[in-house]
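Subject: Re: docking follow-up (guanosine-5'-triphosphate)

Dear J.,

Thanks for your patience while I sorted out the input files. As discussed at Tuesday's group meeting, I've set up the holo structure prediction with guanosine-5'-triphosphate included as the bound ligand rather than trying to dock it afterwards. The sequence and the ligand SMILES I used are pasted below, so you can double-check that they match what you have on your end before we go further.
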Amino acid sequence: MISPHTRHVVMGMAGHIDHGKTAIVKALTGIDTDRLKEEKERGMTTDLGFAFLGDEVAIIDVPGHERFVKTMVAGVTGVDLALLVVAADDGVMPQTREHLEILRLLNIPRGLIAVNKIDIVEAAWVDMVRSDIQQLVKGTFLEESPIYNVSAVTGEGIDELRRAIIREAGMVRRRADKGVFRMPIDRVFTIKGFGTVVAGTIASGSIHLEDTVELLPIGRSLRVRGLQVHDHPVQESVIGLRTAINLQGLEREVVERGNVLGSPGYFRSTSMMDAHLVYLPTAPAPLQHRTRIRVHIGTTEVVARVVILDQEHLKPGREGFVQFHFEQPIVADEGDRFVLRSYSPLQTLGGGTVLDVRPGKHRRFQHDVLDRLQQILKGDPAEHVLQQLQRNLAAPLTAGDIARTAGIPPETCRHHLASLEERSRVVHFEGDTWYATSNTLILRVHVLEALKRFHQENPLRSGLPGVELHSRMRPAIDKRLLAFVLDDLCRDGRIVKHGDHLACEGHAVSLSADQKRLKDLILQKYLAAPLAPPGVKDIAAELGKAAEKVIAYLTESGELIHLEEDLLMHKNGIAEARKRLSVYLHTHRKGTTSELRQHLAMTRKHVVPLLEYLDRIAFTERHEEVRMLKEDL
Ligand SMILES: Nc1nc2c(ncn2[C@@H]2O[C@H](COP(=O)(O)OP(=O)(O)OP(=O)(O)O)[C@@H](O)[C@H]2O)c(=O)[nH]1
Ligand SMILES: [Mg+2]
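The structure tokens for the complex came back this morning:
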């Protein structure tokens, strides 16, 4: 049974061309991931392949050919686990090394190793290859990983490898979740009758049917019409799950691998970023300032110039702070890992961690810039506190809660909160609760979306009462936050307030021709005898269901006034009644219901609700059996 609470792990394949990655995936799962015609003809993987091992493990098969390292990087970005395959006859080869480097640079936490094709070599040869592999992985995340001898052709060792993968998957730790939805897209396809589907592994947050998401870098809002995890339809999917998303109205041509889906308004494309770069000892020459290189990040690859901020140039084996100037905009987040490859010839040179995705243009050798980058790299404790807040979109947190989740003493936490507040990075609410300023930006978008949706569904209504907006918010949010964000939006003029009603700027009610005709008919009925209005139900019975919406519109716009259930009166009728009552009560000072009824020449059925309405709006006031004008009191 698939649910967001089942443990799911994504495993990426790695290894030199023809070493049997695809054959092993097939032996493990029964699924042939080489589905393209070209792949079948050439006996070589050229694109990513996807298979599932039970409900728990999704496997991403990657190409081993050196020309497709770009695709390999897109495939293994964000996986929990890697399986490095080495063919027993070939042994360690160039892409065995390069793929291992890439897994390290991307900080893949765990992995297993398989020596494949043991059916075609002597046992002693297998042992030699195993010891080469041990040498290769020394000092890497695979150092402690057991090496499994298998043959994808005879099936030898495959059951044991499968058990080991499931065991290893059980040990994968849950990822830290930033809480905001983001998914780098690694696959796009169309399904007849449904339209475009995009797939990937959710990097953070969660997604729900009917959510609105933003496609980046183009920045288009789209509605989630369908969701699948491991080929099963679901209502919701969360971080770490391979997820296929059907997006309403998205044309196949506008989306491609490397694009990102995110919570609206949170991620922005950028053409610059600051990073910490590890330059591999195996790089052929020092990295020169302003070299054109390729940066692989998420599922995309983009050409950039590298500005080396803290050294003249980077020697192989050194680390440094750099700023990338991209030739096309990319979408990334702080803490993301990336791989650096040479422009030509294609070779993996290094990689590292994204530190800032919205930097200004830096000059080189600036102490303040380098200090700040150092702080971010070290994990500035105030930034750490801020991160706890950024994970909580729904409500402000108390300082005590933040201290607990950040794992620091409450005094230290308060100190950081104060410094963050000074820099406007957090908002302080009553009751010692705090909220990340960046999250208010996300909420602004959510609030606007909710209101826009309301306008779409209710084109005849001029706005939505605040309480109703609160109950429409999904995910649900704290009332204080909504009030805070609404204030902000009203100040900016993005939302307009009419009394208790809220509307998007520029929203105007527009009636269709039919509705206009109905409106005229309805008003005629109310104006024919302003003091003897018809019942709402009678009008609906005569003019049809569509009349109800028009009546609701006329009530909201103030033309008709609600007296009680089923009884409305035209504003002219009310004005007329007020005028007559004013004259009567000025002369007589007071009047009983029956006296006022006679003076107005209205029926009892109508006059009682009318007089009660006039009490409510403080035109009259009731004293036992009589009423007086409020202004005379
Ligand atoms: N004898 C033998 N042949 C194998 C074994 N595993 C794979 N092969 C063969 O090796 C060749 C390459 O296997 P693939 O699974 O396509 O290799 P790959 O690593 O996926 O190759 P790329 O995707 O192109 O990098 C195929 O002809 C397989 O039949 C094995 O265990 N024993
Ligand atoms: Mg293959």
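A couple of observations from a first look. The CA atoms of residues 118 and 151 lie 6 Å apart. The pocket of magnesium ion (ligand 2) is lined by residues 21-22, 34, 45, 61 (CB under 6 Å).

Let me know if you'd like me to rerun anything.

Best regards,
T.
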